[in-house]
């Protein structure tokens, strides 16, 4: 395949890749999702990631129909990467995309959850050994030897036994292939790879080679200081030629640890003086030792390469397995950190997004206390499970409405609800567990998520409609998650347009949740739509707004300005300022404000 056939590879990028790593390696990096190879070749990480996402899941990226949906997708990847055990795993996480095939989603889910179970079966000490093995693998910048050493460390940490115990016939996790590797062969290969540095045999592998190298280094040093050698011998009282030659042979033998015969074989027959004799002998001896080093090095290297070749199948399997383990273990740690569950994929005969005790991952990453919510749109079967807890109104979400209009107080969690649904659908469609105790999810061709944007002009209205209407009109399975549409146009027109969007969503057979403060203006809703409400319940003793974030189904959630005004009255520092807020209290109901403040003090 030609480089320019890949999305995002234009003439400049193609030339940069060809000049740095060549076409073949560039194609291999793109096909394998190798972010590091592309960044080392000179591409920015962002550009490399975008190319790889399109190359390895381009159709899945089309599911993200709006910029806000793409933002949620990127936020999820950032959260997942926090649990990556290697840089390579983080790179593979960066190029995860939504999938379109439910079988592929299920297969990835199976592996992630089996890996999670195997990981939890390890004791704390073994987990530390596994993480240390991956840290060493990362420090070595991966490679064949690092992968073999990592595989050996993982085997020794007991992951194979933990894998067998955890899965117990329920399918394989990524640790299982380690059990099929020949540990002894891998050990020999590790030692062999440790002894090789390219074509060079490193020091300490072969005593004879090390001795020859030391001898060569000594002889080269003597050659560089030949005049000092001559002077040293003469200072020792050496006289005639024969006596000088004998003393020289002994000196070189003792210094360089070589045999007399090796030195004598290097001596010239026709030296004209001592300087010529010593210089010629040392140079010839150096050449002889250099040849000996080369021959021995090649012999040892050949033996080492033979050990690697004998274990080639296991070595290749270790390289592939270690990378897969790092990737899936990272995903499993993410799932474990957020107590995530397996989503139930709903078949094509019905569509739904239904969750029990779902949490928003962005909030959970920043706070220890997040109120889980139960919510649903579409035809779900949550009510068939005995373990579904009762909601605020003692019933599970209705199953007959494809569209919900979500109402309630400001800061009541309505936008967070939409974002949570978007997170859950995206995670499920990427083949990952979701942050809920139970979830039923359909797959979608388009996810239209639109956050509230406080810009009030015709240009914003037009661009918003261009973003959210075409996916709804042209795709078969669309999820609409639209937040405060009225923020971008005047209330009267906003109500009419929003009512039209609700009708269009119903008519197109899509699913949708629309957050709005204009619920009364949307009546009557289509039969397939309902209104849900989120309610503020009062002020805390610290005068913080207390909200029940669990929506109540089939009812309008009202704004509660008396709570806000009550807080302003209580916190006013200036008498005239307080008088101004008390005037507002009269407008919203002075008795209500006083009762709110009394309740807050009582609760304190």
TrEMBL record:
This is DNA structure-specific ATPase involved in suppression of recombination, MutS family. Keywords: ATP-binding, DNA-binding, Nucleotide-binding. GO terms for molecular function: ATP binding; ATP-dependent DNA damage sensor activity; mismatched DNA binding. The keyword Ribonucleoprotein does not apply. Residues 71-366 form the DNA mismatch repair protein MutS core domain. The lineage of its organism: Archaea, Methanobacteriati, Methanobacteriota, Stenosarchaea group, Halobacteria. Pfam families: MutS_V (PF00488). PANTHER family: DNA MISMATCH REPAIR PROTEIN MUTS FAMILY MEMBER, DNA-BINDING PROTEIN MUTS2. It comes from the Archaea. GO terms for biological process: mismatch repair. Residues 401-577 form the DNA mismatch repair proteins mutS family domain.
């Amino acid at each position: 395949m030609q480089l320019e056939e890949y999305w995002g590879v234009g003439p400049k990028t193609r030339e940069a890749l060809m000049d740095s790593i060549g076409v073949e390696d560039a194609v291999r990096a793109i096909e394998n999702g190798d972010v590091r190879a592309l960044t080392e070749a000179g591409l920015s990480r962002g550009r490399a990631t975008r190319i790889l996402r399109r190359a390895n899941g381009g159709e899945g990226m089309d599911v993200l129909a709006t910029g806000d949906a793409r933002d949620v997708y990127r936020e999820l990847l950032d959260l997942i990467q926090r649990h990556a055990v290697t840089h390579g795993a983080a790179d593979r996480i960066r190029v995860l995309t939504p999938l379109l095939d439910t079988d592929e989603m299920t297969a990835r889910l199976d592996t992630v959850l089996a890996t999670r179970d195997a990981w939890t079966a390890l004791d704390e000490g073994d987990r530390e050994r596994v993480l240390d093995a991956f840290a060493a693998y990362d420090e070595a910048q991966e490679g064949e030897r690092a992968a073999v050493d990592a595989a050996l460390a993982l085997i020794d940490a007991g992951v194979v036994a933990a894998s067998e115990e955890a899965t117990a016939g329920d399918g394989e996790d990524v640790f299982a292939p380690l059990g099929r590797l020949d540990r002894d062969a891998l050990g020999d290969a590790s030692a062999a790879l440790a002894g090789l540095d390219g074509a060079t045999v490193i020091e300490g592998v072969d005593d004879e080679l090390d001795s020859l190298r030391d001898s060569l280094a000594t002889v080269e040093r003597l050659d560089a200081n030949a005049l000092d050698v001559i002077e040293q011998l003469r200072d020792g009282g050496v006289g005639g030629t024969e006596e000088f030659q004998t003393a020289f042979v002994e000196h070189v033998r003792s210094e360089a640890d070589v045999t007399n015969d090796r030195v004598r074989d290097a001596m010239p027959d026709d030296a004209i003086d001592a300087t010529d004799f010593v210089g010629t002998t040392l140079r010839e001896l150096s050449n002889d030792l250099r040849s000996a080093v080369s021959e021995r090095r090649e012999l040892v290297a050949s033996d080492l390469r033979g050990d690697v070749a004998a274990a080639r199948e296991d070595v290749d399997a270790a390289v592939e397995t270690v990378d897969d383990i790092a990737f899936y273990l990272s995903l499993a740690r993410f799932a474990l950190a957020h107590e995530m569950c397996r989503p139930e994929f709903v078949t094509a005969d019905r569509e739904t997004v239904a969750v029990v005790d779902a949490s928003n991952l962005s909030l959970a990453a920043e706070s220890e206390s997040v109120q889980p919510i139960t919510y649903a749109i579409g035809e779900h079967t949550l009510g068939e499970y005995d373990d579904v807890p009762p909601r605020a109104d003692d019933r599970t979400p209705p199953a007959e409405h494809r569209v919900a209009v979500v109402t309630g107080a400001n800061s009541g969690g309505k936008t967070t609800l939409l974002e949570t649904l978007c997170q859950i659908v995206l995670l499920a469609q990427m083949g990952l567990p979701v942050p809920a105790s139970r979830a039923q999810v359909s797959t979608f061709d388009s996810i239209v998520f639109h956050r509230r944007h406080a810009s009030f002009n015709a240009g914003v209205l037009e661009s918003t409609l261009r973003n959210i209407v075409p996916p709804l009109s042209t795709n078969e399975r669309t999820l609409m998650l639209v937040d405060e549409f009225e923020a971008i146009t005047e209330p009267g027109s906003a109500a009419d347009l929003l009512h039209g969007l609700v009708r269009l969503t119903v008519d197109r057979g899509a699913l949708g949740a629309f957050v709005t403060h204009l619920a009364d203006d949307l009546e009557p809703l289509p039969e397939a739509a309902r209104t849900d409400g989120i309610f503020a319940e009062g002020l805390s003793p610290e005068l913080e707004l207390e909200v029940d974030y669990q929506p109540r189904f089939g009812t309008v959630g009202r704004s509660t300005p008396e709570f806000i005004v009550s807080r302003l009255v209580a916190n006013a520092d200036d008498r005239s300022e307080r008088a101004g807020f008390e005037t507002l209290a009269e407008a919203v109901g002075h008795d209500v404000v006083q009762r709110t403040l009394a309740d807050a003090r009582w609760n304190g």
